[in-house]
Design goal:
Helix 2 packs across helix 3, helix 3 crosses helix 11 and helix 6 crosses helix 9. This protein has 2 domains: 221 residues, no CATH class; 177 residues, Rossmann fold (3-Layer(aba) Sandwich), CATH 3.40.50. The strands form 4 sheets. A 6-stranded mixed beta sheet has the order 10-9-8-11-12-13. A 3-stranded mixed beta sheet has the order 1-3-2. A two-stranded antiparallel ribbon has the order 4-5. Helices cover 42% and strands 13% of the residues. The chain is built from 17 helices and 13 strands. The longest helix is centred in the N-terminal third of the chain and has 28 residues. The protein is an alpha/beta fold. It comes from Catenulispora yoronensis. This is Metallopeptidase domain-containing protein.
Length: 473
């Protein structure tokens, strides 16, 4: 928290915050204490990755350096100038906290990092009342998500700001002024709402000189790289969106909660949620320059259709954290090399925007070892090459595509049946045609254009399906 001329600025670290070896070697704690602290930290991260917090799990998956050090009193998550993300934690502090306390502190730190990325306006970052609002809402969410009744206690003292105590002070202050205070749930519902209500107080609360969870003030110049924080934040949110779309309930719930808590903060933030495609998960469209959510989704689903062993896979790191992807989703190969076969069937009715076809062409062209079969279809199927005009215009038949790819109907150009074993079929269409059940529905991926019929998402058996949105909104 920013507290102006508080005594925080005098709390320098005894070693250079960018020197990881010096941090680890500074007056090291007893090896047994370090081992127990590391065990607690790992157990907390496993829980985040598997259940409690998809956002925290993804953030800590990007912390390449997790350093036990007595050079810091508590814990901090920081972005460094070299583009890395670090977790520093005092092993003695973690052992005192125990597992539930460690989970609380790490959850709090993760939310601080992501919300600092979301709220970049300088006037907010420098306002101590906004810090109180963020502390309150984060701790409220942490208490609820982690199933706690109270903040962790060390040496008989709570380790942070209790949102219920802040609310009591707010309620008493406004009542004394003759104003109508909100109830607790309305007070704590959004970050900006909490901040607005605290500003109504005659005597707003001030942050304590040192918050045990907050990034140390004196490290801002050395470690808090805004560009890295923004990149990490966007990557984390994009991957949590993917998890939510795939049906990971905890990821969906946590992301929806975060969107609601930042609602109305700024036009920039609304634009960010739109750019990430957050409207897909909350059921309404955000304003956006360009939505590439469906592109991320397609790569993700395509990877899941190409099974492990001899085929394409996602590189995964299970256990402490979810898979750590530093950039857009990518595919890798495991096992014996062979050509993977993907069919891309594009509806020739003209409803598919050219940029979508171009992007699919570039995607498949970049996948090492993939043999792509391009097809246009209406009532019949015609092979084509990317860049060729689509041939068609008559009625639309998905069954014609299935009959061709499953070897029951020959090619209209060569007269030969299709006999390659397929790893995936990508259908690009508006969805308006009689429904079908392919022989291998788990291999079919449907990209439905705007205002199209996403029936494959509700079909039995269900097939991978996504609404495609392109262009300026």
């Amino acid at each position: 928290m920013k507290t102006g001329e508080s005594d925080r600025r005098s709390r320098r670290l005894p070693v250079n915050a960018t020197d990881r070896r010096a941090l680890a070697d500074w007056r090291p704690a007893d090896p047994a204490v370090v081992a127990e602290a590391v065990r607690l930290k790992e157990a907390a991260l496993v829980d985040f990755g598997m259940e409690s917090s998809a956002i925290a799990g993804w953030i800590y998956s990007k912390c390449a350096h997790q350093i036990p050090t007595t050079a810091i009193d508590t814990a901090a998550v920081m972005a460094s100038g070299d583009g890395a993300c670090l977790l520093l934690f005092n092993p003695e502090f973690f052992v005192e906290l125990g597992l539930d306390g460690v989970k609380f502190v790490l959850f709090h730190e993760a939310r601080h990092l992501i919300q600092r990325h979301l709220f970049t306006e300088p006037e907010l970052r420098e306002d101590p009342v906004f810090d109180i609002a963020i502390e309150s809402t984060i701790n409220h969410v942490a208490l609820a998500r982690l199933g706690r009744d109270a903040l962790p206690v060390v040496d008989g003292k709570a380790t942070g700001i209790d949102p219920r105590e802040v609310f009591q002070r707010y309620h008493a202050d406004l009542t004394e002024q003759g104003l109508n205070p909100f109830g607790y749930q309305d007070f704590i519902r959004t970050d900006m709402g909490c901040y607005t209500e605290l500003r109504r107080m005659k005597h707003p609360p001030s942050p304590p000189p040192v918050c045990v969870h907050e990034i140390l003030e004196e490290l801002q110049g050395e470690l808090a790289d805004g560009e890295t924080i923004e990149r990490i934040g966007n990557e984390v949110l994009a991957n949590v969106l993917l998890a939510g779309k795939r049906g990971v309930r905890s990821a969906r719930e946590e992301l929806l909660d975060l969107i609601e808590r930042t609602e109305g903060a700024s036009d920039r933030l609304s634009k960010l949620w739109g750019d990430l495609g957050a409207g897909m998960i909350r059921g309404r469209t955000q304003r956006t320059r360009r939505v590439d959510w469906w592109q991320r989704w397609l790569v993700d689903v395509l990877a899941s259709k190409l099974t492990e062993g001899e085929r394409l896979i996602y590189p995964k790191k299970r256990g402490a954290v979810l898979a750590a992807l530093g950039q857009d989703p990518t595919l890798s190969r495991r096992g014996p090399e062979r050509q993977r076969v993907v069919a891309i069937a594009v509806d020739a009715s003209g409803s598919m925007p050219p940029p979508v076809v171009d992007w699919i062409a570039s995607l498949v062209g970049q996948l090492d070892g993939v043999q792509a079969h391009w097809l246009s279809f209406d009532a019949q199927v015609v092979p084509f090459a990317p860049g060729d005009p689509l041939v068609g215009g008559g009625g639309t038949s998905f069954q014609a595509v299935a009959d061709f790819l499953e070897g029951r109907a020959p090619s209209v150009r060569t007269g030969e049946p299709f006999d390659d074993p397929l790893d995936a079929v990508i259908m690009v269409t508006d969805g308006y045609a009689p429904h079908i059940t392919p022989a291998e529905p788990d291999k079919w991926i449907w990209l439905i254009t705007e205002h199209g019929d996403d029936w494959p998402d509700h079909h039995t058996p269900q097939m991978a399906c996504h609404k495609v949105r392109t262009g300026d909104r």
